[in-house]
User: Fold RNase H type-1 domain-containing protein from Artemisia annua.
Amino acid sequence: MTSRMKVHVSGPSTSNLVKLKCDASFKGSSAAIEIVACNCNGSLLQCLGEKCRSESVLAAELSAIRSACILAATNGWHHAFIESDSQSAISLASTEDVPPWSLAALVSDIEYWKSQMNLQLCWAPRECNFAAHHVAKVAYGSDVNFIWVDNFPCDITSIVRSDAL
Assistant:
């Protein structure tokens, strides 16, 4: 069983807190990024899946984090946790070290969005990020990009509930 890290948020009320779980799938130069957004009660707000081109798994994971930042800004979720199961992506997006040239634009975009809002990047083990991983499979196999804002598929709803436990 995987232990979970409890996060204590101090300051303003957490009633407007949003958690965005993101993941990426990668094969060749093709990738799919996925984001599952939940409110502080664990209820689904949105699921997004889109295909993109990528040079590496790490670039795809950073693209997912950047898309989560943009989704948070677009929806006015200015107080959010962005979770990824990629320790490398979270580490690279959280450090002040100069990133590799090929990833610099992605890291710079993430830094910009973090400076505009109260966004916290967190690593989560894959077992705790299964909802985003499942949406990744759906997105990778899909011919079109998608965003669900209601009428979520039952399997996604069930997985999100189990992720919240």
About this structure: The longest strand covers residues 18-27. The CA atoms of residues 5 and 71 lie 24 Å apart.
